[in-house]
Design a protein that fits this description.
The protein contains eleven helices and 14 strands. The strands form three sheets. An eight-stranded mixed beta sheet has the order 6-7-8-3-9-10-14-13, with helices on both faces. A four-stranded antiparallel beta sheet has the order 2-1-4-5, covered by helices on one side. The longest helix is centred in the middle third of the chain and has 18 residues. The relative contact order is 0.14.
Length: 337
Amino acid sequence: MVDNIESEPNTVLRVSDLGVDFDVRGQSITVLSNVCFSLERGETLGIIGESGCGKSMTALALLRMVPSPPGKISSGEVLLNGEDLLKVSKQQMSRLRGKEISMIFQEPMTSLNPVYTVGNQLVETIQQHLPVSHAKAQEQAIELLRSVQIPAPEQRIKEYPHQLSGGMRQRVMIAMALVCDPKVLIADEPTTALDVTIQAQIFDLLKEIQERNKTSIILITHDFGAVSSMADRVIVMYAGYKIEEGTLDEIRNNPLHPYTQGLLRSMLEIKPDSSGFRETLPEIPGTVPDLRNRQPGCPFGPRCTKATAKCLEMPPNFDLGAKRSVMCWLADKDDTG
């Protein structure tokens, strides 16, 4: 079994056995189970899966932003440069959040306050973490907007979020996340609702920031195309579990879990036929499991075309070496059945 992650000199973040539960009408529902991974300095880790799989909840748990009640982090360890974020005080966590680990949220129009200018919001963020005057914070806000390639930043800081385009609002969110040059940057669906040209610009900007500051990035997305353009390593999640991990090439060219295989097959392809071109979009059969009524065994079992009687038992995460793992009985080398 895997998930016994050893610390390495270059490891910035190490997550072990992370679990999150929610209380729903008196019933405890597990939404995240035994999630484990590490993140190296300057590395981009992609976390991919369909809606409701636990991607964003993982990010919120890392930042200790799980809404409580009804949610709570029920288990685990989140070591940022050796310090367990789940054990520090709320005051310490407020200091670390934004300074050492920061997040770009997926909906800038709802994350930015509509009644304050972009400049006011940036200045407030800067002064929350740095002991600088209002005038100095305003200078830094202008430089931050310039660093994320927003034209005429002296004018933009006077504008309200609704006066900016979607791409510009997302750049403002990136600027706010970079106020203290954090070691770890979590990007939660950073290109949602943006057209492909702006998406490419945002990813190029994140790469530039990473190269300049050696920032470690966690990219959360349901889009494998986004992962392909950014990630060094990929985690695939399903129903609150990490079900596969590997390098981008390993996941793309040799997916081991039946869910990962189905996820890749369901990417849109344009293939020629006798009448010209046709679109093929194979589906994964079945539906996402109801977390209030989990069935025994592998969470993907009811939808899996390769399921056997063994799948009625919960599979472990099998360690295949070099941070390559899969939570599937098909990887059990000791299974002689």
